[in-house]
């Protein structure tokens, strides 16, 4: 769902309401061609509204990317980076390291902390409602490609 990358929450909402899937794999050129899901990309973009929207439409928070990271792993990395940036002025080595990372405001950090609670709750609920997903220890690309062999592709998904 490329609307996540271009930060168009209105398009994301429209597509989801029309039946687009929340979990198609995405090729992200800025991330060395690592496959992600729209939920993972929204986390990397720090787009709190898109994260909430995708979770409301039953996005799978348990999927892993090719690096074996879940959405929660990526969120924790964003929070770690944000904490480092926000506390950089209080440490000797902090500012040099923080310059390499994308700056984060205290407001964004607080919103991501709230999203962390939602994501943990979503993981628990998804695991309870979809016990078969816990049996899989595969990357997003493999899980999706197996599903597509047995399903017809939704035409709305191709718009993304």
From TrEMBL:
InterPro entries: Ankyrin_rpt, Ankyrin_rpt-contain_sf
Gene3D superfamilies: Ankyrin repeat-containing domain
Stored SUPFAM superfamilies: Ankyrin repeat
Name of the protein: Uncharacterized protein
Organism the protein comes from: Panagrolaimus superbus
